[in-house]
Amino acid sequence: MELSGELLALLCGFAFLAGFIDAVVGGGGLIQIPALFVLLPGVQPATLLGTNKFASIWGTLSAAIQYLRRVPVERRAILPTTATALLFGYLGAGVAASIPADAFRPLILLLSIGVLAYTLTKKDIGALHAPRLSPRRTFGTALLTGAAIGFYDGIFGPGTGSILVIAFVGLFGFSFLVASASAKLVNVVTNAAALAFFVGAGHVRYDIALPMALFNVAGSLAGSHLAIRKGSVFVRRLFIAVVVLLILRYAWDLTGA
């Protein structure tokens, strides 16, 4: 498929916005993936997904580095979460063919509504970083969190970063800022595993992915810088906006519009 300069510029604009949103609260795929599918209808879906993964992982990595430099993270929670997310993400991908993605849409819609209600009613949640689990319970909870989210990411995927954020806030007692930083670190590793498959299978359009990656990185740097400067209150507000977007997206899908 021939790619015009105007079309590539539009894709890069969406990549910048996706990188910005994803660096703060996750959910950049809600912007970048639909943009690729709508603007490049003649490209194979697997290639679009691989191109998206290549473009977004560099932004996620740059945001993770920014957070690591300036935000203290809880490695005791991140490492076991990452380990089981990798394992169960692989297992989830293996059963994805036998479970239609549409089966998950009602569940994710209900989960998103519950997350929104919980966040709105608990006005102080995530305002302060106050880990409340013992080291032993942190380890066990992290293993289970990584398994559940990794399996979901392997089968379905959209909104995984935002789900990670609320898991770190609600289960571990992290602030929204630390939760977002932690989610970025987990995302880098799990996305790298998925990208290895797409690259190996030849499902990346580098003429599209490389310029989009540059703009995704620029958006991620801007988003992470703003999140660090503004703090957890800003991250919480943007998180609520992204969850509302998730709800509208899945409600739209379920109505068959």
From TrEMBL:
Keyword Disulfide bond included in the entry's annotation: no
Annotated TM spans: 77-97, 103-121, 133-152, 158-178, 185-202, 208-227, 234-252
Location of this chain's protein in the cell: Cell membrane
Membrane topology: Multi-pass membrane protein
Assigned keywords, A-Z: Cell membrane, Membrane, Transmembrane, Transmembrane helix, Transport
Superkingdom assignment: Bacteria
Major localization class: membrane
Keyword DNA damage: no
A family per Pfam: TauE
Family (UniProt): Belongs to the 4-toluene sulfonate uptake permease (TSUP) (TC 2.A.102) family.
This protein's name: Probable membrane transporter protein
Species of origin: Sinimarinibacterium thermocellulolyticum
Lineage: Bacteria, Pseudomonadati, Pseudomonadota, Gammaproteobacteria, Nevskiales
